[in-house]
Hints:
The complex is a heterodimer. Chain A is an all-alpha fold.
Amino acid sequence: MIKLVPRTKKSPIISAIIPILAVGLTMIFGGILFWILGKDPFETIRMIFWDPLMNETFADYARPQILVKAAPLILIAIGLSFGFRANIWNIGAEGQFIMGAIFSGALGLAFYPQESVLLFPLMIFFGVIGGVFWASIPALLRTYFNTNEILVSLMLVYVAEQVLAAASIGFLRNPEGAGFPGSRNLSQYPSAANLEIISGSGIHWGVATAFVSVIFFYILLYKHKFGFQVSLSGMSPKAARLSGVNPRLLVILCLALSGGLAGLAGMFELTGPAGQITIDFNVGYGFTAIIVAFLGRLNPIGILFSGMLMALTYVGGELTQFMLNLPAAAIQVFQGMLLFFLLSMDLLVNYKIKLARF
Amino acid sequence: MDFSSIDPVILIASLIVASTPILLAATGELIVEKSGVLNLGVEGMMIIGAISGFIVCVELNSPLLGLIGAALGGGFLSIVFGIVTQVLRANQVASGLALTMFGLGLASLLGHSYTGIKPPYLSTPDIPFFSEIPILGKILFQHDFVVYFSIISVCLVWYFFRATRFGLIIKAIGENQDSAHALGYNVIKTRILTIFIGGCFAGLAGGYLSLVRVPQWTEGMTAGAGWIALALVVFSSWKPLRLFVGAYIFGGFTILQLNLQAIGIELSVALLSMTPYIVTIIALVIISSSKKQGGSSTPGSLGKVFMEAQ
């Protein structure tokens, strides 16, 4: 008979090993999935995890792409991780990402075609405002009306998608675009473009910001009172209240933080890799970032690695689509599996497994 | 613009059809939440139901078997959630999200070669006499049997939690898992059972979408209906009969905005398309603000991990 005995102290080593084990298990079960789909499992796994980094033909393109895709995932996931630690569930980062892009894009387009060094920083500011604004709706509704933030933030993703559609066919459409949907290309507007800092490396301003954020939020989480209050609220809301944490303020701050970072990610995505506002501008980074946050153990440095890994599966996934004709959804299943294995194996962090005699 | 082209009788009849998927999914989720489990994976189970039902229906050429396949598809997926949260004691919120993401991915993978096919038609039973009543007959008695099933099952669930022994046991487990355990009820087994039933309902809801309501398979076709069903459970304050109110309000707005789009009202399509979601948010705000803090209608152990005392 197997018995679970709660651990009195969580082991940091087990906590760090579990994500690696989960990735391993996902590779095995993912391999079985690819085999069922009629592909060579070893070749597919190699193409997802190894070729984007090491294959001579693909690496020149794929390595920068990993950074480009990791940046929004890392930024959004760091923001989400604070809330998740305190049991504040913002699952609408996708919507905040869209609103950040729309706010900053609208500002940039309003000034087109004037050139100024101030425009890009101002657009960054507007991107953050857009995300904070969208996240403040569930935050205020939860603090003042006790409304469930999970459902409200998620509903707002669908609303944001409609705003995005209206923007790309209506109020932000390129007047010189021959009536096609989509805004002007901001990556070709020098003052607004989010260019590569080092040419060919993939490192644009968003990537740089993501790296800086990892350090900044690591310090905020572990060395600052705010980080302590967030973690304490998650472990014991009662203890947090007694130690002077204002739960309402915490909800607002955590949602604003995650919304702001998601909006920021949206701004960098719009002005760089995407270039323009289109109906299909958002590709699900806001949802994948939830997996990234958990895989990184809600820790900024862990999120740095998990963000890179998840970006690798995106780039490798594209490669398998292109080379092996694997459906795009297979990678989505793969990512979903990863989260399941991870959550299931958390059991080992909290419990010891003992074989008990009858 | 011509408002006279909107026939109120057809409007109400189609409102009932439009509400059926979310009513079904919400009924299932209500059973799950009554037992103290929060399964946020309704959207994922629905879309798996939509595609598995569609595949069964097209391959076996039978809408009825398709609907059964849809329910079983959703049910099987929910078992994954049941094992992860009940046996492996994982966080329910995160596991529910994982279920949704996994389900959406798996559904588009399975549905890869089924886009653009038209499924066989689900016939509506002929109800003599009643269906010929003017107005009321058209609104109430000319639907397919899933619509009747959804209405009857809400009533049965109401009776089940009110007057049957097993219903009361489930409620006890949801209210206070430790006391229920101390009384000798098997918390984990009961919860896995309710999760499975909830999954079947969600799957059937998805199957109804892809086989009757649309009827076609398109990627991401649930479009948030699973989340709206979750909101509906909160809106109903966990009281089964109130699900009707919420579902029909929601269905009403969906149908109304579609009709307004069709007649070309001077309002942007985007604005109309976002109304169902905004209405859901407003409904949630109204219901949550009118409840006292920590309202007693929420099952006491909702979302909590059950740990057997050592």
